[in-house]
């Protein structure tokens, strides 16, 4: 019973995160939504395991948390540096323009 | 009580529609991550743990990184084109209709009388416990019944990784370059 209620609550939260990923005005709203979606997937798997009586699948949920972390690091690195390997700070905003053009030009010489 | 798979399916379709509507490619990349996570979770709920593993690792982990790496080389906004919109939609609808038509022949989900549960699967299930004495059936199928297949797959993946590392020169110490260090960051992203 309590697991069913938790599942329903997690699904509602996933729906809200999906709405935020669609509407989110800035890129960070969407990053937040993706991160929340990953967390909710992990929670959903964990709750579902107990609901269906197979709690040994918690390992899978842990692996999902790991995968979500890798994607999140890549996303944040990309939005900060505009690249996956560079170290020049560029703030990528949602409309695709670089907010810190000056920092991009002078960053390479320091 | 609505089955949880149906709710996740609705989320998947909604995510796909949002991906098709969004013009900002960075948002689309993030939504792809959401899509992969959702489908991986759904496969897990359908008891396909190995497929779900692969989807989570490849779809949510590596694909997001790869798409972001490609995005750093291109522009962030999708070009708006008005040509071939009708024909494209027709092709997509026809393909989707054909796929749905193809599923009409399939046995219902979870049907114990489906052919896949009655061909060699009972022998695998029984042999994994009695003959091989491996408690996990997926492991016994992968490592024993299909061991040559798994061996070939591992060889292919290893060769691909080796070739990519040799081509990219990753992991090997490079000689010091005499050029100016400012060249590399200036060459990218200036559009």
What this model shows, in words?
The complex is a heterodimer of chains A (110) and B (191). Chain A has helices at residues 2-23, 27-51, 58-81, 101-107. With 110 residues, chain A is mainly α. Chain A has one domain (2-85). Chain A is elongated, with a radius of gyration of 18 Å. By secondary structure, chain B is mainly α. Chain B folds into 2 domains: 1-76; 112-170, no CATH class. Chain B has 8 helices and no strands. In chain B, helix 1 runs antiparallel to helix 2. Chain B starts with a helix and ends with a helix. The model of chain B is unreliable at 179-191 (pLDDT under 50). The chains are: A mainly alpha (110), B mainly alpha (191). The interface between A and B is large, with 45 and 44 residues.
What is Rg of chain A?
Answer: 18 Å
Sequence stretches where pLDDT stays below 50 over 5 or more residues of chain A: 95-110
Largest interface: A-B, 45 and 44 residues
Q: List low-confidence stretches of chain B.
A: 179-191
Content-based structural category of chain B: mainly alpha
Strand content of chain B: under 5%
Q: Strand tally of chain A, please?
A: 0
Number of domains of chain B: 2
* Tally of individual helices of chain A: 4
Shape of chain B: globular
Mean pLDDT of chain B: 80
Helix content class of chain A: over 70%
Oligomer: heterodimer
The main β sheet of chain B shows up as: none
List the domain count of chain A as a whole number: 1
Rg over alpha carbons of chain B: 23 Å
Mean pLDDT of chain A: 76
Strand content of chain A: under 5%
- Number of continuous helical runs of chain B: 8
Tell me roughly what share of residues is in helical segments of chain B. Answer: 55-70%
Morphology of chain A: elongated
């Amino acid at each position: 019973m309590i697991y069913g209620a938790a599942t329903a609550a997690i699904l509602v939260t996933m729906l809200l995160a999906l709405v935020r990923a669609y509407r989110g005005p800035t890129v960070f709203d969407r990053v937040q939504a993706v991160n929340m979606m990953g967390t909710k997937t992990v929670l959903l798997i964990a709750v579902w395991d107990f609901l269906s009586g197979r709690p040994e699948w918690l390992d899978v949920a842990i692996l999902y948390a790991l995968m979500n972390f890798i994607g999140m690091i890549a996303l944040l690195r990309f939005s900060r540096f505009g690249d996956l390997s560079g170290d020049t700070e560029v703030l990528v905003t949602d409309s695709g323009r670089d907010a810190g053009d000056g920092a991009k030009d002078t960053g390479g010489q320091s | 009580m609505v089955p949880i798979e149906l709710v996740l399916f609705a989320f998947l379709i909604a995510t796909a529609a949002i991906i098709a509507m969004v013009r900002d490619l960075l948002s689309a990349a993030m939504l792809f991550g959401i899509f992969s996570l959702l489908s991986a979770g759904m496969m897990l709920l359908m008891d396909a743990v190995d497929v779900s593993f692969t989807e989570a690792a490849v779809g949510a982990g590596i694909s997001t990184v790869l798409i972001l790496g490609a995005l750093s080389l291109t522009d962030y906004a999708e070009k708006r084109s008005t040509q071939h919109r009708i024909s494209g939609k027709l092709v997509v609808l026809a393909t989707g209709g054909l796929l749905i038509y193809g599923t009409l022949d399939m046995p219902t989900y979870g049907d114990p009388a489906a052919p896949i549960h009655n061909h060699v699967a009972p022998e695998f299930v029984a042999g994994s416990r009695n003959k091989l004495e491996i408690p996990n059936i997926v492991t016994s199928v992968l490592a024993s019944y299909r061991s040559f297949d798994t061996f070939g797959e591992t060889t292919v993946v290893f060769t691909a990784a080796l070739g990519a590392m040799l081509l990219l020169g990753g992991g090997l110490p490079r000689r010091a370059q005499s050029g100016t260090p400012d060249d590399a960051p200036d060459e990218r992203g200036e559009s």
